[in-house]
């Protein structure tokens, strides 16, 4: 008797369309990692500058402006602005943590 449920072997069968999507995702993930690495190199320089000049590790006004700007960009790009804010907040919090550590 045949069923509509694919066998486990069929679920693992190659799918060229899916493989193409996954390759694109892998490329995008690699680009994201490289972009984050570059961003953190710059923010480390900012942290050193702040430490050398006695500036506070956090700048809440700048953070608020960045979040507002990136929420608008996310909306324009049809990306959930709530998600983009959470993602940016995570990055900002990590940068502030690094800046505070540089001043200790």
TrEMBL record:
Residues 12-103 form the Chorismate mutase domain. InterPro entries: Chorismate_II_sf, Chorismate_mutase-related, CM_bact, CM_dom_sf, CM_II_prokaryot. Coiled coil: none annotated. Pfam families: CM_2. Its EC number is 5.4.99.5. SMART domains: CM_2 (SM00830). This is chorismate mutase.
